[in-house]
Write a structure and sequence with these properties.
By secondary structure, this protein is α+β, with helices and mostly antiparallel strands. Helices cover 18% and strands 41% of the residues. This is Outer-membrane lipoprotein LolB.
Length: 176
């Protein structure tokens, strides 16, 4: 594994494999609420092996302010991203780490940038109003991602980034 691969593997191992977990934050967050399972895969670039992360998640809030919890299959919250205007932090059992943006946080933790702000709308099965989009069948293209809604009725959304390395995010929502 090269230096970048090691640098990416260490935060992921710390996030999802730590022995301690974060307490569940019961503080209300205004906006939407989603939970389910998230699978992220980053394809090989030739220099690096493919990478993948699977976690339970809870996403609350909105593009402007919110929280994303990543949990183990047993429900232990291993990492929490929190954001509001002027403040983005990653909270792990090791403490808080500030980031300049959600983009920077996801790039550092997952190895690739994810459009978290757009995800709130994508999980509703619609394009994010903050950027232009193009309709596709069945879904849309936005921000360099193709959002496939073929299984939306089954609470499954798949987003694929077209730029190299290819990134696939599969979300299976829990509906209560």
């Amino acid at each position: 594994m090269n230096r970048r691969g090691v640098a990416l593997a260490l935060p992921l191992a710390a996030l999802l494999g730590a022995c301690s977990s974060l307490p569940r934050d019961a503080a209300p967050v205004a906006g939407d609420s989603f939970s389910g399972r998230l699978a992220l895969r980053v394809d090989s670039t030739g220099e690096e092996q493919p990478r993948s992360v699977v976690a339970a998640f809870e996403l609350r809030g909105a593009a402007e302010a919110g929280r994303l919890d990543l949990s183990t299959p047993t429900g232990q919250v291993m990492a929490q991203a929190r954001w509001q205007p002027g403040r983005v932090v990653l909270v792990t059992p090791q403490g808080e780490t500030p980031f300049p943006s959600l983009d920077a946080l996801t790039r550092e933790v997952l190895g690739e940038s994810l459009p978290v702000a757009a995800m709130f709308d994508w999980l509703h099965g619609r394009p994010w109003p903050g950027a232009a989009h193009e309709a596709t069948a069945p879904g849309f293209r936005q921000l360099g991602w193709v959002v496939d809604l073929a299984r939306f009725a089954d609470d499954t959304i798949v987003a694929m980034r077209e730029a190299a390395p290819a990134v696939t995010v599969r979300v299976k929502l829990d509906r209560s």
